[in-house]
């Protein structure tokens, strides 16, 4: 990813929706002590002692690694938070660390009875740890339950959680294009402007004609056109 690449609006909105869960006074700053206190209060009413200890260890680790960043800040602004999570697209180990972190969340906290799946009730209580209202849970549960069996598997849980922080695509078509460019190592943050340039009719999809025209146009056209943006991510 180029250092000057803009953050996609959709991805920034997701980061903001998570950040404000902990920015209770809406001053644009979140402090570690406030996160720890809030999570501790919620955990007392939803977890047993063993689960609570694991959860608070996870929260503490999350602050140090995902929020505070290399500088180990004790308070962060929203844009500090955004820049730190953009490490997902620069450091492969960062995303792998997220996967391992969410696996622990599933095994030790979300899956309360240890049967390998998360029920609607378990998922509701899990989201309750960060103050999500029960009425907001059903659509989220249904989105994670990708095979429609009425349960959330560990794979579904971890994929969705990591995808929240890593995926920049807001439609299936953009997701496919992101995965295509990922085959040659293009960072997801570089994808949205390229997709929009190729989608010449603005229908939210790239047709075979649009794709081929942009690719051929890159080699044949000397003018500033969307064709350049098709290859822009490769040259960043």
UniProtKB/TrEMBL annotation:
<keyword id="KW-0106">Calcium</keyword>
<dbReference type="Pfam" id="PF13202">
    <property type="entry name" value="EF-hand_5"/>
</dbReference>
<dbReference type="InterPro" id="IPR018247">
    <property type="entry name" value="EF_Hand_1_Ca_BS"/>
</dbReference>
<feature type="domain" description="EF-hand">
    <location>
        <begin position="108"/>
        <end position="133"/>
    </location>
</feature>
<dbReference type="InterPro" id="IPR011992">
    <property type="entry name" value="EF-hand-dom_pair"/>
</dbReference>
<feature type="domain" description="EF-hand">
    <location>
        <begin position="141"/>
        <end position="167"/>
    </location>
</feature>
<protein>
    <submittedName>
        <fullName>Sarcoplasmic calcium-binding protein-like</fullName>
    </submittedName>
</protein>
<dbReference type="GO" id="GO:0005509">
    <property type="term" value="F:calcium ion binding"/>
</dbReference>
<dbReference type="Pfam" id="PF13499">
    <property type="entry name" value="EF-hand_7"/>
</dbReference>
<dbReference type="InterPro" id="IPR002048">
    <property type="entry name" value="EF_hand_dom"/>
</dbReference>
<feature type="domain" description="EF-hand">
    <location>
        <begin position="195"/>
        <end position="221"/>
    </location>
</feature>
